[in-house]
């Protein structure tokens, strides 16, 4: 297959590109390098992909244009590009509207003229459900943040283009994805870094928030399998293993050999209280089930972040 992956330089997108290339698909990667976190991190993600046969990359802002040459011959579109994060979405709604809504509409509009298209997969989020996101896909969608609202708007755009123009859309709602290459603003990354560097963990809320944790390779496996699912479906993608934030911190203490110092902060506006994906629908349609236990996945993330710090240490000493 010839695949287009938007957000290819990001956390999940770079893993997805690697998986598709390993299966000998042709991959066109696309990213616009928003200022949400340093470009150097995304460039490091891309460094594994650029030399590989079958991979081409475009630096492109979908909200501005989608050149025909980017989509030529594409059969699978994996639309992972988005402006992520909860807190900033309250402060910079224009950016979230631009990158999560306008960019999605531009891509859908371009895709409807694509005769080779077999599937358009839209990566959504558990945030569309709101503060209480535990259950199956029949849960009401009540976003509790502007971020969740814009991602739900993207889902509705996909539905409209599917119903009006027959686009073969599949929507995936990701739940709390973690693992190597996780974004530096995400909670588990910050917890691990604090433990490894001896700084306090800045904990928002009481730590009793429940998360259904999805290891990144399990997420990628679900995404690839969903490319063969019936169009028009929406699926939860989650790890099946629930833990409170406090339980995650205790596990990370064991994995790092360090004791956490907690700095308590007020809850963030719109933060989710509980997430837990019922993935039985995806299992029925594709046979996918999550395979990575939380302890094993976190051990891989700790090892990756430890290596990052060790690599950076000589640079700091030299500076």
UniProtKB/TrEMBL annotation:
Signal sequence span is none
Classification via Pfam families: Epimerase (PF01370)
In terms of Gene3D superfamilies, this protein maps to: NAD(P)-binding Rossmann-like Domain
Residues of the region (Disordered) are: 266-288
Q: Which domain of life is it from?
A: Bacteria
In this chain the NAD-dependent epimerase/dehydratase domain maps to 4-238
Fetch the PANTHER family from UniProt. DTDP-D-GLUCOSE 4,6-DEHYDRATASE-RELATED
Q: Hey, which family's this protein in?
A: Belongs to the NAD(P)-dependent epimerase/dehydratase family.
Protein name per Swiss-Prot or TrEMBL: NAD-dependent epimerase/dehydratase family protein
> What is the protein's species of origin?
Thermogemmata fonticola
Question: What phylogenetic lineage does the species belong to?
Answer: Bacteria, Pseudomonadati, Planctomycetota, Planctomycetia, Gemmatales
């Amino acid at each position: 297959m010839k695949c287009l992956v938007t957000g290819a330089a990001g956390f999940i997108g770079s893993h997805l590109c690697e998986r598709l290339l390993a299966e000998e698909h042709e991959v066109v990667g696309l990213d616009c390098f928003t200022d949400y976190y340093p470009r150097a991190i995304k460039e490091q993600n891309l460094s594994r992909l650029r030399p590989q046969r079958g991979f081409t990359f475009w630096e492109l802002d979908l909200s501005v244009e989608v050149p025909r040459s980017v989509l030529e011959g594409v059969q699978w579109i994996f639309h992972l590009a988005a402006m992520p994060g909860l807190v900033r979405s309250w402060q910079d709604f224009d950016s979230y509207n631009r990158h999560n809504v306008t960019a999605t509409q531009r891509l859908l509009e371009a895709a409807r003229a694509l005769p080779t298209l077999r599937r358009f997969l839209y990566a959504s989020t558990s945030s569309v459900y709101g503060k209480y996101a535990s259950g199956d896909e029949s849960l009401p969608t009540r976003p509790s943040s502007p971020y969740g609202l814009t991602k739900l708007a993207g889902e509705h755009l996909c539905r409209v283009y599917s119903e009006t123009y027959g686009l073969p859309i599949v929507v995936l709602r990701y739940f709390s994805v973690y693992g190597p290459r996780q974004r530096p603003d995400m909670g588990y990354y910050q917890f691990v870094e604090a433990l490894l560097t001896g700084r306090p963990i800045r904990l928002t809320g009481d730590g009793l928030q429940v998360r259904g944790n999805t290891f990144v390779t399990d997420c990628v496996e679900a995404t690839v399998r969903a490319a063969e699912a019936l169009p028009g479906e929406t699926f939860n993608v989650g790890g099946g293993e629930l833990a409170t934030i406090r339980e995650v911190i205790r596990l990370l203490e064991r994995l790092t050999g360090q004791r956490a110092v907690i700095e308590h902060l007020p809850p963030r506006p719109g933060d989710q209280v509980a997430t837990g994906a019922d993935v039985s629908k995806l299992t029925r349609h594709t046979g996918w089930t999550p395979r990575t236990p939380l302890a094993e996945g976190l051990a891989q993330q700790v090892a990756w972040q430890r290596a990052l710090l060790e690599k950076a240490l000589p640079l700091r000493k030299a500076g």
